[in-house]
Amino acid sequence: MTYLINNNSNVTKRVEFAENSDSQSTLRANGLGLSLIKSYEELERPELPIDAVSSQLVEILAKNDTSIIIGETGSGKSTQVPQLCVKAGLHEMGKIGITQPRRVAAFALANRVAEEMETQVGDKVGYKFRFNNETSEETNVVFLTDGILLREAIFDSFLSSYTTIIIDEAHERSLHTDILLYLLRMIQKQRRENSDMNPLKLVIMSATMNSEKISAYFDNAPIYYIEGRTYPVELFYANSLTIKDDDDYVYNAVSVVLDLHESEPIDHDFLVFLTGQEDIEKAQKMVKDDQKNATTRKILPLGLYASLSTQMQARAFSKAPQGTRKVIFATNIAETSLTIPGIRIVIDTGRVKQKLYSSQEYEKMDEMPTPEILRSNLCGVLLELSSIGLKSPSTIKLLDQPNKENIEAALDMLEKINAITVKKKLVKNVAKSFVELTSLGKKLSDFPVDPIFARILIAAEKLNCLEEALTVVAFISSEDVFLPLPSSLKEEEKYTRKFDTNEGDHIKFLNIFRAYKSAKNSLKHQELKEWCVSNCINERRLQNVIKARKQLRDTCINKKYNVGSCGLNTSLLRQAIAHGLFMNACEYDPVSKSFKLISSPGIKVKIHPSSCLAMHRPTTIVFTELVRTKDLFARTVSLVDAEWIKKALDPQNGLLS
DNA sequence: TGTGAACTT
To answer: Which GO terms describe its molecular function (predicted)?
Structure first.
């Protein structure tokens, strides 16, 4: 069937509307309209493929409990569907929430949609992710990370402030998205059955066509396809141009930028994909060095990656000054879901790297990545789900079922740390686990960190060293603050860094935090920066640690914890750490000259060379994490007393009530 | 005696 639809822009488009099967209607806005449109620069906003079907979508959104919308990046679904929900009146009884797997995406989309709806960010349109909340009473549409919506569900298990939840980028299958899909399906059912509550409308959006699975998961919800691409962007692969240096893809990418800078109009901005933060900083510096003497036709090199501050990320979305070209060096955070205004040329270095792989490996890379839920430690999410009220996590029905052993291992761990009790019951001759949250488990789930880290905080309160424990937990649950050591450093110098202590790496973190605080009080801004560099510290990451610490501390204050300090008595702090990490306790084994895991003595580990205890030979240690390379290495290690480990294993332990 | 990098509460 073919319908002709008139839309607001006076452009007539041909739209095919085909009914494929009972469960699946197909809405196609084929690209025909695009050739009729004027250059996007002359329009308020670029014409989007979704515009052709917007009025049908409003009806669909108003009518269906659950809709699945499939559209390519650039179809406009992320910016337009929330606005169409408003047109359908879904904001009248509560908020419309739209989740993103990444913070930048939530931030950028909120800014764009606020502009299109002619409102300020934080007013009718807002965003919310960890450490940032730009929403108010007035907010109708909120862009938030999937992780934070999951947190909200702990405090409001019906998500009652929302009328509509849109899950965007469902194809990425992030751990949080998968859990949310499960949870939303359940909440939708509960709200439908409870006459006091408004129904919950769900919209699942994805870029891939393999959507039957999601549809089946939601009782065969109808699937709608939006076809077509957005405004023209030229895509260059770096290897199709002159390769200057075979080994240095950053150098190649920058060379391409500088070449194209000569030939392209100055108001066409560039987007360059690189693999990581380090490469991005390097590329920015290379461009800056090249531009030192430039007076006209300047380049403004900007970075865009997750750990960049919100302000710096915002610069990537703002306009470059007149006569200056904006060049954005980004990780894959910008690859999906983001459309950055002004970008006309995209330089993708991926191909250059890929030619380093054999064809077999190349094919492997091309396959769909394994959903995160199939390869993650499930402790944290299972505790969250128990806290929301789920009684039988072993029978949880997810889009992809994690293997049973994985779930059992996580439940076993939660039981060992006394966060839950598990009762096995026979249901229709099949053993099922029923989970009950303990009072300790409830406390642990208040903190946005791994449950074993939260246990450190609980023990620390009783040991009167919570102030210090907050610092340690903030460090171990954040990114590594150390800059990579220059290989020019001699071996001896590496291990005589001034914060090292024979108590271990956790106390070293405390030393760094204390030293930074006092340096901050006595030094000027620039001097403080230099202080960080000379101590091999990444200052921005350290600031993130400080933010995480504040968030944890606020939770403690809120829950009326006694936030005391042990001062110089760091033995108390290590005792608290032992109460969290007791499952990771190891004893030195003189026979094998390695450490054996106390909980399973067959496993032998070595202290990672980066640890300040690597050159020592402590009897008993606890570690934060294990990494497997040539051997099994324990990273971030502390010296402990064997007695503390025994005490931590005791269920009657008064420190953890 | 040696880290994949990116994402997130």
So the answer is: ATP binding; double-stranded RNA binding; hydrolase activity; RNA helicase activity
Chain segment A153-197, per-residue pLDDT in tens: 888 889 999 999 999 988 888 788 888 999 999 999 999 999 888
CA of A252 to C1' of B8 (A): 32
- The partner residues of A14 in beta bridges, in order of sequence, read A4
- How sure is the predictor about A334, in pLDDT bands with cuts at 50, 70 and 90? low
Q: What's the rounded Cα separation, in Å, for the pair A389 and A155?
A: 11
Name the residue closest to the C1' of B1 by its CA: A609
Q: A587 - beta bridge partners?
A: A596, A620
Q: Is the Cβ–Cβ distance between A203 and A69 less than 8 Å? A: yes
Q: What is the DSSP letter of A201?
A: E
Question: How far is it, in rounded angstroms, from Cα A198 to Cα A187?
Answer: 11
| Region A394-399 average pLDDT | 78
Most confident residue range from A41-50, A171-180, A334-343, A546-555: A546-555
User: A85 CA to B4 C1', in Å?
Assistant: 40
Which of A446, A398, A457 shows the shortest CA–CA distance to A154? A446
Domains and CATH numbers, chain A: 2-226 (3.40.50.300), 234-366 (3.40.50.300), 376-437 (1.10.10.10), 451-656 (no CATH)
Q: How far apart are alpha carbons A34 and A232 in whole angstroms?
A: 10
Does at least one atom of strand B sit less than 7 Å from the CB of A277? yes
CB-contacted nucleotides of strand B (7 Å): 1-9
